[in-house]
Amino acid sequence: MAAGSMVGRTLSDRLILVAVIVLGIVMVAPIVWALGLSLKTNAELMVDTSSVLHAPYTLQNYWDLVIGSPVFRWFVNSMIVSLGMTIGVLVLSSLAGYGFARLEFPGRDIIFVLVLFGLAVPEQAVIIPRHQLFSELGLHNTYIGLILPGLSTSFGVFLMTQYFRAIPREVDEAAMLDNATRFQVFWRVLLPMTLPAQATLGIYTFLHAWNDYWWPLISGTNAQMYTVTVGIASTQINFAESAGLGFLMAQAIFAALPILIVYVFFQKYIVRAVSGGAT
Fold it and tell me: CA dihedral in degrees (214, 219, 224, 226; nearest 10)?
């Protein structure tokens, strides 16, 4: 009986492994295909895109990207916006989460519910008043105008609030017995314990900001203020008028590098946060 259950478990484990491998191939295949396209000449791809399956390959598209493409300017814009939004969200969400989890003040629960209502409001529903407000303030085509809307994240406040609530209050009391101020308790004791949640929130915010297309398209109308997503989209009016399929894929691969780097370096924090570790 035990042997039969062991065989069944082994078979199910193998089936799960096969399914994971197949799904992994399906997800990676478009990236590999784009990389292959970026290593072929544009003239060759105009004749037959299946030529990506065989040599010769070239780095000419990447060289053209280095010497004559505005993609570096778009890259810097995206980096400034993404890092600014990530830092802002982490600071504001941590402070708000600590306040909702640890402080007593009138209307706290009502305000928290109102914050959670933000999860149900799609960005498109407020785009017109936001556009009018930023126009009146002269914030379009500025880094501040691209960053500010992303700082109001209900998800970040909710995540940090729940994480702070999961930390026993005895930790605060022990620190205060050592004459620590409330800010010192927050900064030196509790905040380091929320590192997994902050890493997860930071990665989520960075990826969202880097891949965002909707608001940068509306606010950044000047080509000098394009982010990577808007800039690359502007180069592909249609297939025939684009700068070349291989060159376009080289831009896409270059734009995706920060996403890969962030994931590789911070993956362990995502795993720790999902597993519920607080240290």
Answer: -10
Question: pLDDT (tens digit, 9 = 90+) per residue, 143-201?
Answer: 999 999 999 889 999 999 999 999 998 998 888 888 888 888 999 999 999 888 888 88
Q: Which residue has the higher pLDDT, 79 or 254?
A: 79
Give the side-chain half-sphere CA count within 13 A for 158: 10
Radius of gyration of the chain (CA): 24
CB 242 within 8 A of CB 165: no
Residues 204-223: b if buried by 16+ CB within 10 A, e if exposed: bbbbbbbebeebbeebbeee
Q: For 149, which DSSP code?
A: G
Residue with tokens 């597993």: 275
pLDDT in tens, 155-170: 999 999 999 999 998 9
State pTM to two decimals: 0.81
255: exposed, middle or buried (C-beta count within 10 Å: 0-12, 13-18, 19+)? buried
Domain boundaries, given as residue ranges, for the chain: 2-53, 70-274
Number of H helices, E strands in the chain: 15, 0
Fold of 70-274: MetI-like fold (1.10.3720)
Cα dist. 63→76, 78, 248 in Å? Answer: 18, 21, 13
Kindly provide the b/e burial profile for residues 139-174, where b requires at least 16 CB atoms within 10 angstroms of the residue's own CB: bbbbeebbbbbbbebbbbbbbbbebbeebeeeebee
Alpha carbon distance 184, 4 (integer Å): 58
